[in-house]
């Protein structure tokens, strides 16, 4: 029996428990999936939402932030989704395939389903997969974040998503944009699974359209890379949403894989972008980048755990943050190196630029090394705009605001450029300019 | 063009007085050299003209084409035609030289109410100016001044000066860190810009630069004041006898 003292639930926690009771009949999945959902909800019931006394959420107290929880969003409306997609131009006219998920429902008609099929990419609605045999495996939690509260919330409530399977050897010729659209207000809880067969290659762009109103967005991207596969995944989080934006990436990397990710955050009031990267095969490489902008009262949190469980793998983490107003930035990065994971090469850097006196950055790089023949380094800096650089630009006739834009862009672009996905560089830099002009 | 009247200035942070009553008038078409020992206030004068706020003017005025220059922001001064070639050009990582040039040229044009440059027009201007100064396309693609040698940095400054077409050029020890060949290229670039509508103030320690950029007037600055003014022969005399006479005079 559970001997712990029951916690006093906050309004939001009570809302979530009620939400589960009213929604569970309609939530998809086999009996095993239903049991997983119950267990995940049990974690929220017993421990509450993640809060500042949980180490991983020390700087991002979701429990204190979330005053109430809205019901889950209603079923998708394809016509609204279509209209919202037309207004969604984060990447301009970049030549790309599209996969559309609206309020958790995979919309095959609005997606380039046939074109993707001819490239070796199969798309299945998550809910169909959850109902089938092995559905429960689709909701497996990351090894390094087994008790993570945001993942638990996702598991309990997941409304749907898409399963993307790229067959062995397929190299998808264009970037694939996975657009998640909110066609009505209410919480959006989605989970997308990507499986790359041996030697497959994919460039994924995660974007979001529509407004969830008071509801939180909670989405998990679970990536499984077969040997020699390569995945570059760009998550673009923009807009001034008031409700929490909660993102999780799980990456399970086979041997000789290349995994790259960029988490781009600009605008929302409360964003958590967390990544769990696990090396399971040798000679693989993970490169993880973050570009964060926050102003006003916003909080933006980039958290990751890279788990070197096997030898001969490299990881590189490079995060850039720009803060203004009374915003708070968080970077928590941990590299674990298991006792036998020799010849690991890990290099982590986080840099913050504070544009105001009241902005605050928490940088927490961590190394946990149990092997003796490894190369691991980490660094963290926080600073202001260099007055000498600013003066030089102004002395050439560039007005102060424009000069600051140039310098902030230059600062953030270092990460965007090192990420090196050239076809998205221009779009991302334009989004930086948007933020600078509008925050 | 430039009138400096009884200019007194100090370092804002610790109130150390640097300039103690500088008077200087430079007319269009003239090249003035300002020489003087270390610590005499030469660089301070150039920074005050460009608008760096590390310094505080306590007395006097600076008129640029009749306008009170001290009330203008640094970028307004630049758009009005003031250009400072920095003694130590700043490295700006992440800002490509080309992008910087385009932004600066167009910002100044915008401030003056002129149309922005078309890309082909801009490219043509840059290529032409760059070829005279031996600035390679490779340099232009790199972030501004990052990894440039001392000579490359100075050439890049003169390139900016040619493209921005200022009315008043202030060159702060442009000869420092240059070898003979680089000195010749830079001087040629500067001489090309001499003209009846443009004034120049050349700040230097050494007479050497003035063999290449021959001044109309030479001033000696010592302890924050101009203590002697003459023609180009004054520079030769200084080279021979040093600054000792003037330091004593000023003391």
Summary, kept brief:
The complex is a heterodimer of chains A (439) and B (251). Chain A is α/β, with parallel strands linked by helices. In chain A, 25% of the residues lie in helices and 36% in strands.
Walkthrough of the structure:
- The complex is a heterodimer of chains A (439) and B (251).
- Chain A is of the alpha/beta class and 439 residues long.
- Chain A has one domain (11-385).
- Chain A is built from 10 helices and 19 strands.
- In chain A, strands 2-1-5-7-9-11-13-15-17-19 form a 10-stranded mixed beta sheet.
- In chain A, a hairpin with a 2-residue loop joins strand 1 and strand 2.
- In chain A, helix 2 crosses helix 7 (149-157) and helix 8 packs across helix 9 (400-419).
- Chain A is globular, with a radius of gyration of 21 Å.
- The mean pLDDT of chain A is 94.
- With 251 residues, chain B is an alpha/beta fold.
- Chain B has one domain (2-250): P-loop containing nucleotide triphosphate hydrolases (Rossmann fold).
- Chain B is 40% helix and 25% strand.
- In chain B, strands 6-7-8-3-9-10 form a 6-stranded mixed beta sheet, with helices on both faces. In chain B, strands 2-1-4-5 form a 4-stranded antiparallel beta sheet.
- In chain B, strand 7 (168-172), helix 7 and strand 8 form a beta-alpha-beta unit.
- Chain B starts with a strand and ends with a helix.
- Classes of the chains: A alpha/beta (439), B alpha/beta (251).
- The interface between A and B is medium-sized, with 21 and 26 residues.
Task: Please list the strands of the largest sheet of chain B in the order they lie side by side.
Answer: 6-7-8-3-9-10
Shape of chain B: globular
Low-confidence stretches of chain B: none
- How many distinct beta strands of chain B? 10
Q: Please give the order of strands in the largest beta sheet of chain A.
A: 2-1-5-7-9-11-13-15-17-19
The number of distinct structural domains of chain B comes to 1
What CATH architecture label of chain B applies? 3-Layer(aba) Sandwich
Work out the helicity level of chain A. Answer: 25-40%
Extended strand count of chain A: 19
Q: What Rg of chain A do the Cα atoms give?
A: 21 Å
The CATH homology group name of chain B:
P-loop containing nucleotide triphosphate hydrolases
Structural Rg of chain B:
18 Å
The end-to-end distance of chain B, rounded to whole angstroms, is 31 Å
Give average pLDDT of chain A, whole number. 94
Instruction: Give the amount of beta strand of chain B, in percent.
Output: 25-35%
Low-confidence stretches of chain A: none
């Amino acid at each position: 029996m559970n001997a712990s003292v029951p916690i006093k639930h906050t309004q939001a926690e009570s809302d979530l428990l009620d939400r589960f009771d009213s929604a569970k009949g309609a939530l998809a999945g086999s009996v095993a999936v239903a049991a997983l959902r119950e267990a995940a909800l049990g974690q929220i019931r017993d421990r509450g939402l993640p809060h500042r006394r949980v180490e991983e959420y020390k700087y991002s107290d979701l429990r204190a932030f979330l005053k109430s929880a809205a019901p889950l969003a209603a079923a998708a409306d394809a016509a609204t989704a279509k209209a919202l997609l037309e207004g969604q131009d984060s990447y301009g006219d970049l030549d790309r395939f599209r996969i559309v998920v609206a309020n958790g429902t995979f919309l095959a008609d609005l997606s380039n389903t046939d074109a993707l099929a001819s490239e070796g990419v199969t798309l299945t609605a998550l809910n169909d997969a959850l109902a089938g045999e092995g559905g429960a495996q689709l909701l497996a939690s990351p090894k390094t974040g087994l008790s993570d509260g945001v993942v638990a919330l996702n598991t309990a409530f997941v409304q749907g998503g898409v399963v993307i399977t790229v067959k062995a050897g397929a190299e998808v010729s264009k970037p694939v944009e996975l657009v998640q659209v909110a066609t009505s207000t209410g919480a959006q809880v989605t989970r997308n699974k990507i499986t790359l067969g041996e030697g497959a290659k994919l460039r994924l762009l995660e974007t979001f359209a529509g407004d969830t109103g008071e509801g939180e967005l909670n989405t998990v991207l679970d990536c499984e890379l077969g040997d020699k596969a390569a995945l570059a995944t760009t998550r673009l989080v923009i807009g001034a949403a008031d409700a929490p934006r909660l993102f999780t990436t799980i990456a399970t990397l086979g041997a000789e894989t290349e995994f790259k990710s960029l988490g781009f955050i600009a605008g929302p009031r409360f964003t958590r972008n967390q990544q769990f990267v696990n090396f399971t095969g040798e000679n693989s490489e993970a490169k993880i980048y973050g570009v964060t902008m926050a102003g006003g009262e916003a909080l933006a949190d980039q958290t990751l755990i890279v788990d070197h469980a096997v030898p001969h793998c490299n990881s590189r983490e490079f995060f850039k943050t720009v803060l203004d107003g009374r915003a708070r930035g968080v970077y928590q990065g941990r590299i674990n190196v298991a006792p036998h994971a020799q010849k690991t090469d890990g290099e982590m850097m986080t840099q913050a630029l504070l544009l105001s006196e009241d902005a605050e950055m928490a940088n927490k790089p961590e190394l946990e090394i149990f092997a003796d023949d490894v190369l691991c380094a980490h660094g963290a800096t926080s600073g202001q705009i260099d007055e000498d650089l600013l003066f030089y630009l102004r002395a050439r006739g560039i007005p102060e605001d424009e000069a600051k834009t140039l310098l902030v862009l230059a600062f953030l672009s270092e990460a965007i450029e090192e990420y090196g996905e050239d076809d998205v560089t221009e779009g991302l830099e334009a989004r930086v300019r948007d933020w600078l002009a509008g925050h | 063009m430039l009138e400096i009247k009884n200019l007194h200035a100090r370092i804002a942070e610790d109130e150390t007085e640097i300039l103690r009553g500088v008077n200087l008038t430079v007319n269009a078409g003239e090249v003035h050299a300002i020489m003087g020992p270390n610590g005499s206030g030469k660089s301070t004068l150039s920074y005050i003209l460009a608008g760096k706020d590390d310094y505080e003017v306590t007395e006097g005025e600076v008129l640029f084409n009749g306008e009170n220059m001290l009330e203008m922001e640094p970028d307004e001064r630049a758009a009005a035609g003031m250009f400072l070639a920095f003694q130590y050009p700043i490295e700006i990582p992440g800002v490509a030289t080309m992008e910087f040039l385009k932004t600066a040229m167009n910002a100044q044009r915008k401030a003056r109410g002129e149309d922005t440059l078309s890309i082909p027009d801009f490219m043509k201007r840059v290529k032409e100016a760059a070829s005279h100064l031996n600035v390679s396309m490779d340099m232009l693609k790199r972030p501004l001044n990052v990894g440039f040698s001392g000579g490359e940095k100075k050439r890049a400054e003169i390139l900016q000066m040619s493209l921005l077409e200022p009315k008043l050029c202030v060159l702060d020890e442009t000869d420092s860190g240059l070898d003979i060949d680089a000195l010749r290229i830079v001087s040629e670039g500067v001489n090309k810009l001499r003209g009846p509508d443009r004034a120049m103030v050349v700040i230097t320690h050494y007479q050497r630069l003035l063999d290449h950029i021959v001044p109309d007037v030479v001033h000696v600055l010592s302890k924050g004041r101009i203590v002697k003014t003459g023609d180009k022969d004054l520079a030769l005399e200084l080279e021979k006898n040093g600054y000792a006479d003037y330091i004593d005079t000023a003391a």
